[in-house]
Every structure is written in C-alpha cells, then in structure tokens.
Amino acid sequence: MHSLNRAAAVVGVGATTFGRLSGNSAEQLGAWALDNALSDAGLTASDVDGLIACRVGYEAVASMMGLRPRWVASLPAEGRMTGPAIQQAVTAIAAGQCHRVALVYGNNGATAKSTYGGFGEAYGAPTELTLPYGMTSPGAYYALMLQRHQYLYGTSERQLAAIPMTFRKHAQLNSAAVMRGPLSIDDYMTSRYIVEPMRLFDYCLINDGGVAMILSAVDRAHDHPKPPVHILGTAQLAELVNSDFPPEDFWRNAVREVSETALAQSGRERSDVDALMIYDNFSCNVLFTLEGLGYCAPGESGDFVQNGRLELGGALPTNTSGGHLSESYMQGWGLNIEAVRQLRGDGGDRQIEGAETIQYACASPVVSSVIYGKDL
Asked: What is the pTM of this model?
C-alpha cells in the first residue's frame, strides 16, 4: 500500500464558477470543469485514458469531451464518495489499468432546486420510524449529534461559531467563493435555527458548479505546466452496520483509524501536516473530525477551534478556500483541489506559507482521508 499510494500525482485541476449557473446540466458543469483541468495540465482529451464520474453520467461527459477511456468507473453522488473515488483512481493507475484518470464532478443543485431534505429523503434510515419525527435530512441527524456533544462536553454555540466565521474569512480572500460578505459573532448568534441547535451559517451552501482533477502515473507527471502534487496516502472505512446514524462516537474511532492508515502509507506524522481540508457539510462535523484526527481530546474541540487556530497564519489552517460553508458545496471536491492549489503555491492571498503536506478528511458513513504532498 505504501508504494501503491505513491504511484499517482495530481497534474491538473479545474473548476467552473460557482453560484446559480442556469441552463447547465450537471454533466455540462462537469465537462466545463474538466476542460479547465485539461488546460491546467497542458493535456488534451486524447491524453486521458481513465474516467471516474461522480454525480454525472460518464457516458455524457465522455461524449461531450471526446474521451475514449479504457478504464471507467461511476460512483454515487454522496460526498462520502470523494475520498474513495480518489483512492480508486490511484489504485487503477498503480495496477496499470490506465495512465491518466480524469475525475469529474458536476452539481446543478441550485437551479434544480435540490433541498437535501423533505419527504422521501431518508438517507438509509427506515422511513416509517424517522419521518414522523422530522428526521428527513442530514441536518436533522447532525443536529442530534451536536446536541449530544453539547450535553456531554458543554460545547457552546459561541464556540461553534468560530468555524463558519473562520471559513468566511478565508472565503473573503477567494474570488470564486459564493459567500464573501463579513460574518460576525452577532450575525451568527442572531441567525435563525434550521434544526436547533444548528443555525443558518452552520449549514453548507446549495449551489451549481463543477470540479475536475487529473491524476497521472508518477513517471508521467513531470511534463506539465504546473508541478505535480503527489498522493502519498489514501484510506477509507465504512461505518454502515445496522445503518446506525448518527454514531455514538461521532465517527471518532473510524476517523482515527483512517487517518493513521493514510499517514502511515505517506511516511508522514500528524505533526508534518501543514493544513487540513475537512468535509464541512455542517460546521459541527469539523469538531467531530478534529477529535478523530487526534488534534484534541474527545470533547475539547470547542475550545480547540478558538483564538484563530484554524485561520490562515494560525497553528492549523483549515478549509482555506472557505469550504462548503462559504466557498461552494462541491461535496468534497473543492476541498481537494484547494489542497492541490496550496501545495503548488497557487493560493494567492490565501496561500499557506511553506505548505508541504495537506490532509483531506471526511467524517461520514464512509470515512476517508487523502494525504497530499509537495514531494514524495
């Protein structure tokens, strides 16, 4: 596994603009992003022989872009599939099934009026047991998790506010971000509850956009306009037994196991990680993930995120693009290309000085992590 995860590097990334992009299907948005990624890598469609499609139809994307892949995969839309998609692409390259893989994601959720909740949105739970109690969306489940965290550890709303406020500061440095207005503690505390105790700014955005990455075999990764960013380690672990959601340990144990596995593959220690990209579908998930990663003890994440610790210039810069809460909701893909841009030195006003190793982590029913490195 150590050699497998050093077999591939990211040589191109691309994205659309974000927001309301009416008139575009998810496939068109994915193709738009892929076109930008190909340009970023200095490649043409004929140079790509692998394709992974997420939330878009692989046939449509291949047809639009003129791809003739000899290896194809299609994964479900959920953001929990982002880390596994990257792991699968690395594995295909390491096995010699293909040399360059395009990973394509498109989402027209804003113009399609996606709600991620409401009748019929059961997310794997028995509807007859959950619908009568309003458990019709991911937000309802995460609200229960946050309530439990508050009960056990005394986590406060003002502590939680540091996360959306920090990510909004980062988004203000990102011209592509959907939400760039200032966000104060008063703005946060006076915003309405969506599902108590989670407020409006604790929720990810719903917007249109597309993201694409191009992974290459390492021996072909150096003849491109931008320096390659190496994938040093990947891991995943599903927590699906009995469909228990939310888990009593906030996915803490699974995150720890996945992180330790990915770091061991990468030859890095936690102390080597310069920044984090944490799946922030809801702000409280950042708390749960930090505890699982071992940056603070169980129950101490509310204190840990205070005093600018997650900000640019802080001890552990996190979601420097603005993340799902302020840049855009691309179900993990935007966070992964932000890791690549930071390690290439393309962060602009939000560049992390001296960044060499960045970790992506997603706490969800399928926990995953990816370790990116500037060097092998």
From this structure: 0.96
